[in-house]
Structures are given as C-alpha cells and as structure tokens.
Design a protein that fits this description.
77% helix, 313 residues
Length: 313
C-alpha cells in the first residue's frame, strides 16, 4: 500500500518513467540493429553498460548517495547479472537460430512470466480477470504482429535450441525483475539509481569476459566504425540505459511488477512503428490489428492499477 501511495503522489514521474520503458526501450531494437553492423555483440554490450554504469555511479556520488554500501553492491551484483547480462546475452545467442521476428514474439512472454512468478501478488493478480485477460490478449497481439512470418521462422533446423535459450532468458529477466523489486530494503530505496549503476557495471564485467573469450575484443577495429554506429551506441548508453533502465528499476519500487512488465508488449509495437517511419518497412492489416490488440491488453492490465483501485498493494 505504501508503494501505491508513493506512486500516486508522484504521478507525473510515473508517467514519464512509463514513457521511457515503453517508447525509448522500444526504439532500442532499431538502434541495436544499427550498432551491430559495426560492433561485435558482446563488445557492444560491454561498452554500453560500462559507460552507462560509470556515468550514473558518478552522478550518484556527486549527489551524495552511499554508493559503496556493501548490501547494495551485493544485491546489485545478483540482479545485474540475472536481469541484464543473462537476458541480453541469451537474446544475442538465440538470434543465431531465430530471426528478430520470432525473438520479439518469445521475448514478449516476459510479461506473462512476471505475472506467473510474482508469488506475493498471486492473490491479487489471479483474482483480477482484467489482469489475466490483458496478459493473454497482449501476448496474442504480439503474435499477430509477426503472424505472416511464423511459418518461415519455425522451419529453421535448430530453431528449438534458440527458442529454449530465449525462454531461459525471459525467465531470467522475470526473476531478476522480481528480485530487484522485493529484495531491496526500505533503507536502500534512496539508492535506487546507485543500484542501477552497479547492476550495469556488474553486467558489463560479464560482457567484457565474454567479449575477450569470444574474440570480439581482438577482432574489433574501432577505426572502421561508422558515425551512425557511434551515434547508436551513444543513444543506447544515454537513453536506453541511463534513462530507461533507471526508470524501470524505480518503477518496480512504486508499481506492481505485472504492470511494469507490460513494456514487453509495447516495445515490439514501438519497434514496428520505427521500422515503418525510419526503415521504410511495410505494415499489413494483420500487423495493424496486432498493434491495436496489444494496446487493448495493456489497457486491461493497467486500468484498475493506474486509478489506484487495486486493493492492498
């Protein structure tokens, strides 16, 4: 109930934070694709989270936050590795066997995994037909976005391996989300942004290790990286990590996890729109219908919560 009251008192902040995880995170699909034209995957992750983590940690230090608190660093290490590194690394590995369309469909199931694994909220979530119906409808809408490509996707001889990897990544993100929501004590809530910084830094350490082992560091030639890819990296650092990820961690403290997890439905929606306007991609009637269905699902999940009529939250 206290977290609900805090979010009601800071409604403008909640709206801005949702804009960041809905729209900005949705746009990162496009910019990651651009950056990967010149950056190897693990090196891209290492550069992105190292820069974002150090910048955010420096800001927190200048604000006088207790950035070196042992319990904060320890818990951030767990959530950073489970929430950031495993999920993103698995997505990159899965894309060896699956194209981005099927990846987007399976990744959207993260919202359902959060709903299923959020044990403390079972009593509320599973007694609320709008939450359950909205979750199913939202997932169905994402499938509609890519329905015309599904047959080709499933024909890949090793698609099962990619699907299993991606499901593992979705579960990891869901568990990391719930860990970040419930394992931080009230004393540490003032260090939300410092915690985000440490999570990114611990994820970057894992990305650097993978980049070295995989040969990404040795093979990379930064002198050949285009200005467009550098711009995309800067965008991912500033908007994708510094703003959107910090907003995500903060929202988990003040809003229900199932509601925050609806970003997994909206992100493909934004990705499709950017593909149309920036990538000159064609959108079919079925895809447009899918976009509307996604919005309906999100509205059903968020309807009672956003009005504060959610019971004992």
């Amino acid at each position: 109930m206290e977290s609900q009251n805090r979010s009601n008192r800071n409604l403008p902040g909640v709206i801005i934070a949702y804009f960041l995880i809905y729209v900005v995170w949705g746009s990162t699909y496009f910019f990651i694709g651009v950056a990967l034209k010149d950056f190897p995957p693990f090196l891209l992750g290492a550069l992105r989270f190292t820069a974002a983590g150090l910048i955010l940690l420096g800001i927190c230090y200048l604000r006088g936050e207790r950035i070196f608190k042992k319990s904060l660093v320890k818990r951030s290490a767990v959530s950073g590795i489970v929430l950031l590194f495993i999920d993103m690394a698995v997505v990159m590995l899965a894309q060896q066997y699956l194209t981005s369309s099927l990846v987007a469909i399976i990744a959207s199931s993260t919202a359902l995994w959060i709903l299923l694994l959020d044990v403390p909220m079972w009593r509320i979530n599973f007694r609320n037909p709008l939450t359950i119906t909205g979750g199913v409808i939202g997932f169905g809408g994402v499938i509609m976005l890519y329905a015309e490509q599904l047959n080709a996707e499933w024909l890949h001889p090793q698609s099962e391996r990619g699907i299993l990897l991606l499901i593992f990544g979705c579960i990891s993100w869901a568990l990391g989300t719930l860990y970040a929501k419930y394992r931080s004590s009230r004393e540490e809530e003032v260090n939300d942004f410092a915690g985000s910084a440490w999570q990114m830094l611990f994820a970057s350490v894992m990305f650097w290790l993978c980049a070295i082992v995989s040969g990404d560091v040795e093979e990379a030639d930064l002198s050949t990286v285009s200005s467009t890819s550098w711009f995309s990296l800067v965008y991912l650092i500033s908007f994708g990590s510094l703003l959107a990820y910090s907003a995500y961690v903060w929202l988990l403290k003040v809003r229900p996890a199932a509601e925050v997890g609806t970003h997994a439905y909206v992100n493909p929606f934004i990705a499709v729109l950017l593909g149309v306007f920036l990538g000159n991609e064609r959108v079919t009637f079925i895809q447009l219908s899918g976009l509307l269905v996604i919005l309906l699902g999100v509205m059903l999940i968020s309807r009672k919560r956003l009005t504060g009529k959610t019971g004992n939250l």
